[in-house]
Amino acid sequence: MRRAAFFLVIVSLVIGFSGAVAFPESEIRVLMLTSPAMLALRDMIPKFEAKYPDVKVVWEDTAYADIHTKQVNDFVSHAGRYDVLQMDNPWLPEYAGAGFIENLEPWIEKAGLRLWKDNLRRWPPGVEKYPTIHLEDLIVPILNFYGNWEGNLYCIPNMPGVQLLYYRKDLFENEEEKAAFRAKYGYDLEVPKTWEQLRDVAEFFTRPPELYGLTWSAGKGNMAVQNYYNIAWSWGADCFAFGQGFPDPEDPIRNMPICNSEIGVKALEFFCSLKPFMPPGVAAYEWAEITADFTEGKAAMMFQWSDFVRDVEDPAKSKVAGKVGYALMPGKPDAPVNNVPGIIPGEGYASLGGWGLVMNKDSKNKEAAWKFIAWASCLTMTHDEMKDYLEFGGTNTGRLSGYFIPETTGYRVGRYPIELEMYREHIRRRPAIAEEVEYEIIVGTEVQQAFIGAKTPKQALDDAAKALYELMVRGGYIPEDQPLVWPSKYVNPDGTKASE
Amino acid sequence: MKWRVRRASPYFMLLPAVALLAFIVMYPMVFSFWVSLHRWYLGKPHLFPFIGLRNYSTILLKDAVFRIALLNTLRLAVICIPVEFALGMSLALLLSRGDIRGKVIFRTCLVMPVVLTPVVSGVLWKFLLHPSYGLVNYFLSLLGISKVEWLADPRLALFSVALANMWQWTPFAFLLLYAGFVSLPREPLEAATVDGASGWQAFRFITFPLLTPIMVIALLMRTMDLVKLFDVVYVLTRGGPADATEVLTLYNFRVGLNYFDMGKAAAMSWIIAAIVTLLSQLYLRVSRIEF
Question: What is the C-alpha separation between A243 and A258, in angstroms, rounded?
Answer without folding.
Answer: 9
